[in-house]
Amino acid sequence: MESPSAVPDNTSAAETVASIDDLMRKILIRLPMKKLSRLRLVSKRFASFILTLDFNRASGLVFPHFIDMIRGFYVLANVEPWYEFTPFFVHDDEDEDRKEEYYDDCPFDGKFIEDSSGVRVIQSCNGLFLCRSHVGRKFRRIYYVYNSTSKKYATLPVGVIDMKTVRGMCLAFDFTKSPYYKVVCVCALSSRSKDSRFRIEVYSSETGAWRSYEESFTSRVHFEYGVYWNGAIHWIWSTSDDQDQPIYFNPDMDRTPKVMPALPTLDGDYKTRNCYFGESCDHLHYIDVYKTLTQFSVYEMKKDYSEWFVKYKVDLSNIGSNLFSILAVIRGCDLNDDDDPFLVLKLRGNVIRYDLNRGTCETIAWFMGDNDRYTISKCPAAKTPLQLIDCLCQV
């Protein structure tokens, strides 16, 4: 009598392996990212299987927010410790398991990379952090790409670049499209600080080499403060009092940046108090908050770059103060909802979660110690919170 578990004689070895792989995929896609990260250490086969692009694409399809599991963000401080971790869920006593997972290995400090001068994180991008050594002179800086899930990092080979001309570096990474990341480096044509002509160099983790684009362009944006979305890096913050045209650069398609639609402004003589510009779950948002006003709009950019449109209307008059700062716009983080949008605000040392659909507020965290440590500037990119997203990418 044939055993129920026996493989039929007419089943090929390839078919058997394929059926086992399919079963393994169905099991693994339901595991939390932290457990998957540990499973990679079990065997080379597990590591190879989990890290394949097909597996991660399948994970995104079966479990829509698997890739973009945003646990929270780090707010940059003015003094050590440089980072304060804030989760995106409300503190309650009934969800201890979730709390433990969210706070696991958090927070980190500037010593997570072995660099005697210390390290500052300058950008987060879909689970990877772009970091640089914390030294005074630009031409001596070392750049790193760090994965906080695996706690691995890679040092960027910048020896071919004249570091005196570097005006900004940004990560371009989307694991649903490629397991490799790119780093976009904007260089001035000369080392003079006021030089407004630039060119671009792109590093690829796939080739381990830089590619130079000799075409030059002119702009007056802060190239240190880029946001990755839709396959491109976007810069909107101007270096002058007059707002320059926002631009974007796709490292897979472009040789020089392209122009975006102008930023939306409010009619009338209003002075901007603080702004927000960031990406969440494949949506690019912009907010401009004006002094004395507690009502504003959340704008979103269309995928074809045709226009900014109003996505949400916000009224914060019920919070009792207009002295708030916008830390983040978050979309699609509720696994039971395709789009559960909320604002994250800083108000009197508290972190507030504002539901964009219901108009309700909840305190989710508070900053420890001196509140002046976490000053948010008008151009918030210098203090923009760094999203913590679990990621299995190899660096």
UniProtKB/TrEMBL annotation:
Domain F-box positions: 21-56
Organism, scientific name: Castilleja foliolosa
Domain F-box protein At3g26010-like beta-propeller, chain residue ranges per copy: 120-320
Entry-linked Pfam families: b-prop_At3g26010-like (PF24750), F-box (PF00646)
Domain of life: Eukaryota
Protein name per its UniProtKB record: F-box domain-containing protein
